[in-house]
Write a structure and sequence with these properties.
The complex is a heterotrimer of chains A (about 170), B (about 100) and C (about 575). Chain A contains six helices and no strands. With about 170 residues, chain A is mostly helical. Chain A folds into two domains: about 80 residues, NADH-ubiquinone/plastoquinone oxidoreductase chain 6, subunit NuoJ (Four Helix Bundle (Hemerythrin (Met), subunit A), Up-down Bundle); about 45 residues. The longest helix of chain A is centred in the last third of the chain and has 35 residues. The relative contact order of chain A is 0.06. Chain B is mostly helical and about 100 residues long. Classes of the chains: A mainly alpha (about 170), B mainly alpha (about 100), C mainly alpha (about 575). Chains in contact: A-B, A-C, B-C. Chains A and B meet through α1, α2, α3, α4 and α5 of A and α1, α2 and α3 of B.
């Protein structure tokens, strides 16, 4: 059992690292899809199958498709400006700060949480208890997608025209 | 087991932040934000498992996924517009603040 | 009823300010009328509030779990000051309709003035220390904006920055006092603090620190020693602004602060004596500087500083009633003097008194109102300045060592001297250069007339004044006096005639100035020291330059780059984690 955890966590960290450090934006988007799949597996073995499905479909589906779409419009280019924060400083500060955070969490020096005895049914809690919240999020989601389509429509039609003219 | 998951969470957040400090390409920023939020989501699920309130944690994590997806979607659209208007993806050359 | 009036009183000027901003600079006539209407409406509301004086505290919502309630108190101390602020505010807005005709960016001017009036009402009416700090900062912002109103003029900008830095230094004192009060009484309510201090729940050294930080806050805001150099440089502001902010309202905020916390802090050893000594030094220094100044508005600024010193001395002697009565009189006659000076400067174009002269025949209305105001300033009988000044002198005589009383009498001579000098140089004698002056148009003359009427008659409200103060502030130890008691006390006291004699000596010194042996090296030395503001100008200029240089240096860390900002975020995270590791383990 711990072996499965260990493999999934190791693969997750590796794919996240590759997603941010690999050259080429399309490769980064594909590694991001891999990261989504691995987090979905991790969430599943932690005990939440519903969320795993949602994460898989949204993260590895919707976001990846949008990324590929955007990258095809934008294209890759070399960045020529200079770096503000040198690499060694960035690595050291990330390692120091999050190392401290990990230490505090693992050694359980963080303030402790108490567990609640009654646990309601998930669908009840989700659709009744947080009704307004969920409906708002759904509306936000849909309006966001529609708005985005409106925003990138001129760019897309321009590309299509350019494609036709060629 | 919990320790491993904690290490995963903290590493994901650290990788996300490291990429935000290093990168100058606007699409890479969105990739970094995605990685960051995945770490936060796993943290929420772990907290649900530890306090035995999985349902509450799941509903919150769904909210997190929705928020992060909307950020990704709008961020991508804005970066496309930015590219169209200014012709570059580099955030340092776009900034007009007098330095 | 009061619960409805107080929010309206604060929000009417604020709403008018926002609407004025939206109207913009294009419709100038509409701007003048709309701003005047808003100011007059809030003045009427404040006068209505006078009927609601009681000792209740009204609280509205909670402003978050830590900061207590948004509470207002309806006692006389606050309501009288709110009336002064709103009424004089409306008169200066009417005056500005004529004075600021055809100026640029009028929307900015009116919205800042109205924002200021609303914030001042809020400052004196609230009973929550955190809200006092909030309104305090808003008044500091408006004062800075209005001093630097002519923002093409580098002197004005520098004057505004100097006022901002020095009064913000005082704001630090207020914040420290507020945090200490919260730490020891777990609430931000002033009533609770006074109860705790009088009941002995706060340790004596903490109470001492609270007292002295409040003195720092009050002296910085009211331009006392050693923070007095910002007020003369603030005279770069348009004159209605000087009349409102730097004579009648904002500089009273320091005095108000001390009066409000008086019952809690009067037992602190050395507190009252410190205030008394600071007030006395301020009176002497600023009167000396006023005798040698050449700019008309600077003389009035120095005289404001010295009259505030009188109020501080009254608090130091223990009499809140005398202080508040002098505040009322001073607000009226000082606003009158500043508005007259504004009318003179507007018509002749210069502020230098040595270029004026012989204006009495040319502009009789302004001359008469100015002379009424200056007679009140000098303390001539029947006008309101006389009664309040005599009340202060009487309380000092009965409550403090005799040497202080003698120094106060000397300052009465100096006050009379600079007043008569100012009046003579501007209005009498031969014209020193041919300047064209014309009398005030109606919209300027109306506030002058109302204020001079107030100067002559405002002492008649002494009885309801002291009765309402005494009834609504039971812990403050304010005596109830009737008007006849006041008149008989003052005219029956032989020291009154001593003070009047000092005024006469001061006037005589001016008229005999060529015959007295005054042109020797001592007076020349005093003149040169006072023209340099006794060395404090150099210190304050150094502070201002230092702050400017430091902010230019810190500007370099604002790069606008995302990478740098996230880096800064992580440094902050490290600091928090270090604090957790040290504290939590």
């Amino acid at each position: 059992m711990p072996l499965v955890y260990f493999l999934v966590v190791a693969a997750l960290i590796y794919s996240a690292h590759k997603a941010t450090r690999v050259k080429g934006l399309l490769n980064a988007a594909l590694w991001l899809a891999g990261t989504s799949c691995l987090t979905s597996i991790l969430v599943y073995i932690l005990g939440s199958p519903g969320l795993a499905v949602i994460e898989l479909s949204v993260g590895a589906g919707l976001v990846t498709v949008l990324f590929v779409f955007a990258i095809s419009i934008i294209g890759d280019e070399k960045i020529t400006s200079d770096v503000f924060v040198p690499h060694w400083l960035a690595i050291s500060i990330s390692v120091v700060s999050f190392g401290m955070l990990a230490y505090l969490l693992i050694a359980q020096h963080m303030p402790s949480v108490q567990s609640v005895t009654t646990s309601p049914i998930f669908s009840d809690l989700f659709w009744e208890g947080r009704k307004i919240d969920i409906y708002l999020q759904g509306a936000l989601f849909i309006s966001g997608i529609l708005g985005i389509l409106l925003l990138i429509a001129p760019a897309v039609s321009k590309r299509i025209k350019e494609g036709k003219n060629k | 087991m919990n320790t491993l998951v904690i290490i995963a969470i903290v590493s994901l957040i650290a990788i996300g932040f490291y990429c935000l400090i290093i990168t100058r390409n606007i699409l890479k920023i969105i990739v970094a934000l995605q990685v960051l939020v995945k770490g936060a989501m796993i943290a929420m699920i772990l907290a649900g498992k530890l306090t035995d309130q999985m349902e509450l944690a799941q509903s919150m994590a769904i909210t997190i996924i929705v928020a992060d997806t909307i950020v990704a979607v709008i961020g991508l659209a804005m970066s496309i517009q930015l590219r169209e208007k200014t012709g570059t993806c580099d955030i340092h050359s776009i900034s007009k603040l007098k330095r | 009823m009061a619960g409805i009036l107080i929010p309206f009183l604060i929000f009417t000027p604020w709403l008018t300010a926002i609407l004025v901003w939206f109207i913009g600079d294009k419709h100038e006539e509409g701007l003048h009328q709309f701003a005047s209407a808003g100011a007059i409406l809030s003045a009427i509301l404040s006068l209505l509030l006078l009927s609601q004086i009681g000792d209740s505290t009204i609280s509205f919502a909670k402003i978050g779990p830590l900061f207590g309630n948004l509470s207002f108190s309806t006692d006389a101390l606050g309501i009288i000051l709110a009336c002064i602020a709103n009424c004089i505010g409306s008169l200066t807005v009417i005056f500005s309709a004529e004075y600021m005709k055809h100026e640029k960016s009028l929307a900015r001017y009116y919205s800042m003035v109205l924002l200021f009036i609303g914030a001042m009402s809020g400052l004196v009416l609230t009973a929550n220390i955190f809200m006092i700090f909030f309104f305090w900062e808003i008044t500091a912002l408006c004062s800075y904006q209005l001093i630097s109103f002519y923002n093409d003029d580098p002197n004005a900008v520098r004057g505004g920055l100097k006022a901002l830095f020095i009064t913000q230094f005082g704001g630090i004192g207020l914040m420290v006092a507020g945090l200490l009060i919260f730490g020891y009484t777990h609430s931000f309510e002033i009533g609770r603090f006074i109860q705790a201090a009088q009941g002995g729940e706060i340790p004596a050294n903490v109470l001492g620190i609270i007292g002295f930080t409040l003195i720092i806050a009050a002296t910085a805001k009211s331009a006392q020693f050693p923070f007095f150099t910002w007020l003369p440089d603030a005279m770069e502001a348009p004159t209605p602004v000087s009349a409102l902010i730097h004579a009648a309202t904002m500089v009273n905020a320091g005095v108000y602060l001390l009066c409000r916390f008086f019952p809690a802090l009067e037992a602190v050893p050395g507190w009252k004596m410190t205030i008394l000594i600071l007030g006395l030094i301020t009176i002497l220094i600023s009167s000396l500087m006023a005798i040698f100044a050449t700019d008309l508005k600077r003389v009035l600024a120095y005289s404001t500083v010295s009259q505030l010193g009188y109020m501080f001395a009254a608090i130091g002697a223990g009499s809140v009633l005398a202080c508040q009565f002098h505040l009322l009189s001073h607000a009226i006659f000082k606003a009158l003097l500043f508005l007259c000076a504004g009318a003179i400067i507007h018509s002749c174009g210069t502020r230098d008194m040595y270029k004026m002269g012989g204006f009495f025949k040319k502009i009789p209305f302004i001359s008469i109102t100015f002379i009424i105001g200056s007679l009140a300033l000098a303390g001539i009988p029947v006008l309101n300045g006389f009664w309040s000044k005599e009340l202060i002198l009487e309380s000092i005589h009965s409550g403090t060592p005799i040497i202080i009383y003698i120094l106060m009498l000397f300052s009465v001579i100096l006050t009379a001297l600079y007043t008569i000098r100012c009046v003579w140089l501007v209005f009498f004698g031969e014209p020193r250069s041919d300047l064209h002056v014309h009398d005030a148009p109606f919209l300027m003359a109306l506030p002058l007339g109302i204020l001079s009427l107030g100067t002559i008659t405002s002492w008649l409200v002494f009885e309801p004044f002291s009765r309402s103060l005494s009834n609504s502030l039971p812990l403050y130890g304010i005596p109830k006096e009737t008007l006849s008691e006041l008149v008989s006390k003052i005219f029956g006291d032989p020291y009154t005639f001593l003070a009047l004699g000092m005024v006469a000596i001061g006037i005589l010194i001016w008229f005999l100035r060529n015959k007295l042996p005054l042109h020797n090296s001592i007076t020349r030395k005093i003149k040169s020291i006072s023209l340099n503001s006794f060395g404090f100008e150099a210190i304050n200029n150094g502070v201002v330059n230092g702050i400017n240089a430091a902010s230019e240096a810190i500007r370099n860390i604002q790069t606008g780059s995302l990478n740098w900002n996230i880096f800064g975020m992580l440094i902050g995270l490290i600091c928090i984690l270090i604090a957790l590791m040290i504290g939590g383990l």
